[in-house]
């Protein structure tokens, strides 16, 4: 039955969602009843720019199905909003989030107060079982390529070393990218579990840490040397932005031997350069990117969900929001491997966050 306090908190959460969704995301429309009094602010869009700060060589990784040992390149992905308004997406069908389309705010009555004037449909959600919450579908793709003699990535077919699956994201404010941005986060991980609204505030970045599921590429059979790690964000241009040409970064990394005991395989990775090339300067062998800046036709249906969504999440805030595990310092690799052998829930909660 639950105690009265729990039931009261659940009712308050439902009321909060019922109030917040209409205020944060009004239906798509060309005209607003307030326009004659307040004027038409027009379209105001964010600008997402990817970045990478952390690369590592590790002896394991976490996957959707379990724990895998081997040799892997870990890397973080930072979705920086360098625009003047939030990246904000809202669910179109609150009762069925796993099959709902989502819409992005494209016109703001007051971006500081997060009051949206107009939205456009941009994509869908998927339930991410490993992270235990919803993600925006197919947001990023990763490549590892050989480096050509000129220092740029080798975009020939032979230059491709590894290719990721399409990666989905939950959007939230992880840290400030601009010291002049608002001092506190507005979008948090609560928005991922009860996905009425997700977003990244202007001047903030969403960080997918290098130890998370999906943030690695296999290094089995890959020798030491220089490589290009490529992050292609919003590769299908589904989100509306002021600039689609800076959603792509080439990160030159050096993989080498190491005597440092903190490097479990006796190998390390270091960033030695970064470049944000224009679409015309990305070579001809890119197989996962869409360089056209044509605005796509808004989807009428969301991607079909093949995963069962827990009832506590389907009902959004009827049940308690899952507690995000606290990330603690790792012990030596041998201890991690022993604890995680066979893959168990204790290992999941101990060594990863649930972004």
Name some characteristics of this structure.
355 residues, 10-stranded antiparallel β-sheet, 4-stranded antiparallel β-sheet, 17 strands, 14% helix
The dominant shape is: elongated
Count of helices? 6
Q: Estimate the mean pLDDT confidence.
A: 74
Distance between the amino and carboxyl termini: 30 Å
Total strands? 17
Rounded to an integer, what's the Rg over CA atoms? 21 Å
The SS-based structural class is: alpha+beta
Strand fraction equals: 25-35%
**Helix content estimate:** 10-25%
- Unreliable residue stretches: 1-23, 284-355
**Largest sheet properties:** 10 strands, antiparallel
Query: Can you write the helix and strand succession as a string?
Result: HHEEEEEEEEEEEHEEEEEEHHH
Give a verbal description of the structure.
By secondary structure, this protein is of the alpha+beta class. The protein is built from 6 helices and 17 strands. Strands 5, 6, 7, 8, 9, 10, 12, 15, 16 and 17 form a 10-stranded antiparallel beta sheet that branches. The longest helix is centred in the N-terminal third of the chain and has 21 residues, at 4-24. The radius of gyration is 21 Å and the shape is elongated.
């Amino acid at each position: 039955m639950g105690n009265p306090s729990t039931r009261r908190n659940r009712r308050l959460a439902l009321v909060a969602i019922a109030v917040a969704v209409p205020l944060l995301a009004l239906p798509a429309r060309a005209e607003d009843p307030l326009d004659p009094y307040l004027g038409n602010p027009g379209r105001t869009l964010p600008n997402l720019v990817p970045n990478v700060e952390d690369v590592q060589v590790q002896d394991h990784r976490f996957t959707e199905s379990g724990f895998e040992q081997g040799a892997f390149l870990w890397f973080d992905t930072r979705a920086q909003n360098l625009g003047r308004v939030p990246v904000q997406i809202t669910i179109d069908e609150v009762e069925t989030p796993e099959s709902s389309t989502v819409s992005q705010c494209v016109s703001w009555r007051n971006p500081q107060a997060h009051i949206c004037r107009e939205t456009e449909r941009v994509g869908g959600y998927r339930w991410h079982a490993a992270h235990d919450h919803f993600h925006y579908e197919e947001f990023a793709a990763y490549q590892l390529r050989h480096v050509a003699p000129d220092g740029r990535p080798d975009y020939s077919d032979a230059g491709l070393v590894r290719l990721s699956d399409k990666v989905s994201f939950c959007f939230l404010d992880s840290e400030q990218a601009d010291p002049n941005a608002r001092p506190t986060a507005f979008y948090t991980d609560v928005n991922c579990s009860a996905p009425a609204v997700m977003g990244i505030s202007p001047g903030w970045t969403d960080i997918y840490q290098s130890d998370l599921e999906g943030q690695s590429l296999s290094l089995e059979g890959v020798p030491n040397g220089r490589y290009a790690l490529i992050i292609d964000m919003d590769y299908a241009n589904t989100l509306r932005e002021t600039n689609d040409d800076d959603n792509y970064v080439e990160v030159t990394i050096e993989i080498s031997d190491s005597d440092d005991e903190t490097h479990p395989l006796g190998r390390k990775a270091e960033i030695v350069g970064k470049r944000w090339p224009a679409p015309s300067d990305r070579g001809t062998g890119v197989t996962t990117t869409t360089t056209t800046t044509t605005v796509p036709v808004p989807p009428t249906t969301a991607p079909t969900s093949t995963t069962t969504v827990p009832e506590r999440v389907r009902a959004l805030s009827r049940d308690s929001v899952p507690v995000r595990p606290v990330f603690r310092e790792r012990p030596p690799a041998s201890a991690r491997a022993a604890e995680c052998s066979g893959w168990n829930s204790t290992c999941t909660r101990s060594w990863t966050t649930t972004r």
